[in-house]
Amino acid sequence: MPTTVPAYGKEAAGRLASMADVTASDGALRRFLHGLPGVDAVGLQARAAALGTRSIKSTAKAYAIDLAISMIDLTTLEGADTPGKVRALCAKGVNPDPTDRTAPQVAAICVYPDMVATAKEALTGTGIHVASVATAFPAGRAALPVKLADTRDAVAVGADEIDMVIDRGAFLSGRYMTVFEEIKQVKEACRREDGSAAHLKVIFETGELKTYDNVRRASWLSMLAGADFIKTSTGKVSVNATPPVTLLMLEAVRDFHAATGVQVGVKPAGGIRTTKDAIKYLVMVNETLGEDWLNPDWFRFGASSLLNDLLMQRQKLSTGRYSGPDYVTVD
Prior knowledge:
By secondary structure, this protein is an alpha/beta fold. About 50% of the residues lie in helices and about 10% in strands. It has 14 helices and seven strands. Strands 1-2-3-4-5-6-7 form a seven-stranded parallel β-sheet.
């Protein structure tokens, strides 16, 4: 089904419009972003560590495992991708555990634009979204017309979601309005002729932003530009999602919602491989944003290798035995 960009209520639209002065000029945007409170790195890291120690009982753990499975963007982004590999990944997303039909399906299958049509056909009628990376993923080093064409092509062949990367060079050199306008134009390129639109996930590549203050600024900049989701990483660099960075982004989403009434999703990606780690992130979401964000519409995992561990832990809870990696498919 086509994804529809949520219509903001009058109050939320009015509150968002009231922030228009913030983005009226490069100077205004710079003043706003640099006027955000500085991040207490020690406090942030301590808070993330404390939330990671929460104890989860067996019943809650079973619920958390199924919830985490339903939040996964199952991904293949390799130069050697083939239609057969994409179809196999789609089959796994629809039925993650062939031995247990009660296992939930994943949220989305994420592929390169040239594989969107293949994934869309394979997922017809399942309700699983097709996500596509665009804008010269993962480096983002291309002219804006190329990035927009990349996005429009993916949407035209059926992408429900677009994962774009920001221009980190522009951001780190302080050209915030350049990044803002690029996100806005990609957002517009996500729109279809019937008025619906693909959801836009904006990737920061937080490992390249270097500081927590930059992550906070990138979060606000992207949300002001219209991001439906903010996402940590491409999964293609050495430093990907971390609990402190994800917590910081969750806090930015919380504060943006308080200021505007607009709800934005969060997607940590890269480096999340175990059930234990996934549950820590779910606790973080619940404690920071509440239950409204504890569903695939507002929180995702970009962590394909995580799925197998979730399935093995699910089997262990069900049977009392740990099956091991030979009992799940290799992606």
